């Protein structure tokens, strides 16, 4: 047996077989064949050889499925895609990105219909704060309400019939706030978030006027039932004409001392129009008083037109104060979480975002966003604006100085790379900065790449592709590591708040002269409410609403505006 076992090893086997064969030929008088032990050895060896040949044949004829190789490749690519020196992506497959943003988003959507909803977490840094459990619970409750009361549900159809009658005579299961599409894209994003928060606070269902492009730009945020207002909504043909002179405008009704209802509970209007645009007057602004909110709660349909991010003034309404504190213990996260919950780019826009990011920004050690909005009249680019941008970026150590004496600066080790994403209606500022860092080495040896996705020359609010590019660029700016924004710009507000970025704000130039200092760090990442009320509802007198509570302060870029901060 020992001999048999040894002969199963490789070359010993063939040597043994050859020897036995020669002996048999020399000695024909030997027993026919070989001994039983030798016969058994040859038989087993033959089985082993056959087994090996059969296995090789099967593998060649039927190789492992592509899925095995593709899965292996996908894992390698996923690891490489997620690696980033600034921890932009997760380093470990064992701890995947939280696609639900720590419970903020609902699970169960068809991922293919809106890829960005769950994929966007892979492009963002983890924030140091999380949504409150109360906010998460409130969002799940709102989703249930929207499912029960959304378009074409039984409750919706019932309220529509009463809306058509023109009067409201009894209680209804569902009340609504209709957001009317108005103004530029940055304003629309900010005001839609404001309207949604108001809906949550007042237990209303938010319905969104799709306008000309909202369906093309944004995915549905709520499960199962659409947030878009149906095309057959009875008042839709009145949207364009609604203003402060409209009979159902709340401010005008107050001026006329309209007796909305009698003490016996008789008829009330079935809808009220809320004019909260920048030109609203003192009566319109009474919307921000608790007693007026008590009355508005009785109206089943509120139609809202606004170009203001009015969330800061909601924090000043006493009846909302405790609820808002529970929703947002950290005040400056209000728009960030509302925006991350509501605004998911459609697949066509997400393609624009991801292709640009992967081509120009992903591999950089650091990404710097510079958002430029110029309010000066005349043809740019303006030298004083460029000087201000450069002064801010260099002073705050966002970009390095250039070396005008040497042709080459060789850093020790691998040079750090910075990708600068610029957005502007003009290409002039991008070209100047790109040429400067191309024609001269940096003093630090850092490698600087300058990129600008588009330059539309002027704002084209009603053009579909223009707004796709605008939404793409806001979102790309929100994916940067540090951000410089322009004063008064809602475009910049959206980018900074979505990205959880506290920006450096460029001061608004005066007399075509670069300000000194050129910029300052914002107090918080929250947007600014440009046209807040200055009114004490209890005292019925004027008051500085930026000094009533520590978490509502005047804005850095607009002295009369209001923004949320954490004291």
From TrEMBL:
<dbReference type="Pfam" id="PF03254">
    <property type="entry name" value="XG_FTase"/>
</dbReference>
<dbReference type="GO" id="GO:0032580">
    <property type="term" value="C:Golgi cisterna membrane"/>
</dbReference>
<dbReference type="GO" id="GO:0042546">
    <property type="term" value="P:cell wall biogenesis"/>
</dbReference>
<keyword id="KW-0961">Cell wall biogenesis/degradation</keyword>
<comment type="similarity">
    <text>Belongs to the glycosyltransferase 37 family.</text>
</comment>
<feature type="transmembrane region" description="Helical">
    <location>
        <begin position="39"/>
        <end position="60"/>
    </location>
</feature>
<protein>
    <recommendedName>
        <fullName>Fucosyltransferase</fullName>
        <ecNumber>2.4.1.-</ecNumber>
    </recommendedName>
</protein>
<keyword id="KW-0325">Glycoprotein</keyword>
<keyword id="KW-0808">Transferase</keyword>
<dbReference type="GO" id="GO:0008107">
    <property type="term" value="F:galactoside 2-alpha-L-fucosyltransferase activity"/>
</dbReference>
<dbReference type="GO" id="GO:0009969">
    <property type="term" value="P:xyloglucan biosynthetic process"/>
</dbReference>
<keyword id="KW-0328">Glycosyltransferase</keyword>
<keyword id="KW-1133">Transmembrane helix</keyword>
<comment type="function">
    <text>May be involved in cell wall biosynthesis.</text>
</comment>
<dbReference type="InterPro" id="IPR004938">
    <property type="entry name" value="XG_FTase"/>
</dbReference>
<keyword id="KW-0333">Golgi apparatus</keyword>
<dbReference type="GO" id="GO:0071555">
    <property type="term" value="P:cell wall organization"/>
</dbReference>
<keyword id="KW-0472">Membrane</keyword>
<keyword id="KW-0812">Transmembrane</keyword>
